[in-house]
Specification:
With 177 residues, the protein is mainly α. The chain has one domain. Helices cover 69% and strands 3% of the residues. It has a two-stranded antiparallel sheet with strand order 1-2. A hairpin with a 5-residue loop joins strand 1 and strand 2.
Length: 177
Amino acid sequence: MKMSVIIGVAHMTMGICVKGMNNWNNRIVFYFEVVAGLIILLGLFGWMDVLIFIKWFYKMNPYSSDPTMMAKINAAPSIITIMINNFLLMGKQPFTNATVTNAEIYLFPAQRGFSEFFVACALFVMPFMLFVKPCSIACCPKFAGFEEFIHHEGEGEAEVAQAEETEVQMIDSDDSN
């Protein structure tokens, strides 16, 4: 399961990079879709992949009778819990053991700082990714490089007049019957 997540994130990263190569000349798409998408993807799911690798190399011996190793095994946080707590608790990883003492358990000492940074980056970039392109198309499509969204005056009026004429002809033919 973890290997499929790693391969999936690599595949999505490659897809976004290909989109970036295709839209190199369109600056709005490149910066506000490709770069922002990479920041969000790698800041959240790339970080999850790093945590997967760290947990794979997290020193644990399940056959040990050492009480500190047993406590370490019981307190090892799951990757899903870490990712959920990144958003809900801003990177804090609370743990309550059998003696009901609260502690924070991390895979490595700077984990909370990295988690807070990546979530903050993703939350900062999301509005730019969602709103810049639609607003630039609505306000100034020619400057933004989206000429196909420019509405020219008088365009389409001939089609509307022809449709109205056809409708009048159909009504007249129904009245004569």
